[in-house]
Amino acid sequence: MDLATARWLASAEAADALAVASDLDEAAHARAAAGDGHAVDPLVAASALRAARPGLEPGLAAAVLTQVRLR
Q: Is this prediction's pTM over 0.85?
């Protein structure tokens, strides 16, 4: 991760994207616990985040999803 991405992750814009990604991640894990074996799929997570935040650059979306998984 570069310094610009790390700084962006500390911004208010990133906080919103992180909150959305966290909600999506929790919902995916709930579906997985209910038996949906494909619920926790990285491509599905990326698509859902990009749909929720269409202006988010792919690299920033990847950084957000990584941070959510690390939490």
A: no
**Could you tell me the pLDDT band of residue 59, with boundaries at 50, 70 and 90?**
very high
- 31 CA to centre of own chain: 16
Separation between Cα atoms, residue 29 and residue 37, nearest integer Å: 10
Rounded CA separation 24/4 (Å)? 25
Q: Which parts of 1-71 fold into alpha helices (H)? A: 3-9, 12-33, 42-52, 58-70
State how far the Cα of 6 lies from the Cα of 60, in Å rounded to an integer. Answer: 10
State the residue for tokens 């926790």. 40
> With 80 as the cut, is the pLDDT of residue 39 above it?
no
Backbone φ and ψ for 54, nearest 5 degrees, come out as -60, -25
